[in-house]
User: Which sequence fits this backbone?
């Protein structure tokens, strides 16, 4: 895997990180990309908001 990844691959890893542990290499590549890409940082924040909302909804049911 290249040290620099594209946004599509990065957002896939961000989504996958919700379901499985990422490898050290995946985590480092993702973090490097996030340092340079505001769009992917926003996507990461949106995922966190959705996850929190889903957890709160589940607790209320």
Assistant:
């Amino acid at each position: 895997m290249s040290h620099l990844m594209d946004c599509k691959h990065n957002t896939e890893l961000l989504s996958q990180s919700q379901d499985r542990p990422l490898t050290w290499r995946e985590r480092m590549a993702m973090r490097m990309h996030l340092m340079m890409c505001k769009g992917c940082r926003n996507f990461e924040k949106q995922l966190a908001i959705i996850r929190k909302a889903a957890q709160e909804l589940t607790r209320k049911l």
Remarks:
- The CA atoms of residues 11 and 40 lie 7 Å apart.
- The longest helix spans residues 38-60.
- The chain has a mean pLDDT of 91.
- The two ends are 42 Å apart (CA to CA).
